Amino acid sequence: MNKNQAHATPCPRRQRERLLDALTASFCCLLFLSCSLAPRITVVADERIERLVQDEAARILDVTEDKANSARFRFFLSDFPRADLLGMSIGQRRIYVSYTLGRRALRSDRHLWLLRQTLAHEIAHEISGHADQAKIGFNRSTAGTGMTARDIGLPWYVKFQPYSLENELQADWEGMKYWEKLGWDCAIWLRILKEFERQNYTGDIHHPTDARLTQAARACPLNTEPRNSPQQGSFGRAAIR
């Protein structure tokens, strides 16, 4: 090897150090969601649905303790590859909502109530600071299977930590309190969960339908049939988490 070749060939040790630095930077970016995660989530532009989501979210935020910061919330539509994913919160007052759910809510009162439940639940996650305790949270239904990056259109190497059962139940509880302040019938919330149970949605260790239903029944003790009640089976096979 001549002198010129020696200068042209990088030091193996330096190469390893640069590679390690690059990998460390990438890992930190993914771990703390501080770099490119949010922009890579597929976003759908639809003015009518966006307006609906914003209007319904504004009504909920108006009765929360974070009302003063309502303008800082950001809501996005995403056509999640996984059809039963209704929404997710990722911190910093950013919430993603299923485009399919929003589209159906424009035409159906039944899905409008499901959208309202989804928004109340996710807003409660954000206000409660749950995203500071978990790397990313999901609104999901499938029992016994974990959410993957590809379910929301992200690269396979992105990893997630779901909200705990305690967090999920707290988000339900706070969401129902928002409904009460708005004068929305808690029996509708309860009916949605009963429909999940009727369809044999047992949930998973973080989202057991029976625990959520038991809590909802305590919060809605009259357990009356809701006014303008959605018909049985009308919510399909998407669950809210």
Can you put this structure into words, describing what you see?
- It is a single chain.
- A hairpin with a 2-residue loop joins strand 2 and strand 3 (94-98).
- This protein has 241 residues and is mainly alpha-helical.
- It has nine helices and three strands.
- Helix 4 packs across helix 6 (109-128).
- It is globular and about 70 Å long.
- The longest helix has 21 residues, at 12-32.
- It has a three-stranded mixed β-sheet.
Radius of gyration, in Å, reads 21 Å
Tell me what portion of residues adopts beta-strand conformation: 5-15%
How many H/I helices? 9
For the secondary structure, the number of strands is 3
Write down the secondary-structure element order: HHHHEEEHHHHH
- Show unreliable segments: 2-9, 22-39, 140-144, 226-241
Q: Biggest β-sheet: count, sense, barrel?
A: 3 strands, mixed
Please write out the topology.
Layout: H1 3-8, H2 12-32, H3 37-40, H4 47-61, E1 74-78, E2 87-91, E3 94-98, H5 99-107, H6 109-128, H7 165-182, H8 186-198, H9 209-219
Parallel strand pairs: 1-3
Antiparallel strand pairs: 2-3
What can be said about this structure in brief?
It contains 9 helices and 3 strands. The protein has helices spanning 3-8, 12-32, 37-40, 47-61, 99-107, 109-128, 165-182, 186-198, 209-219, and strands at residues 74-78, 87-91, 94-98.
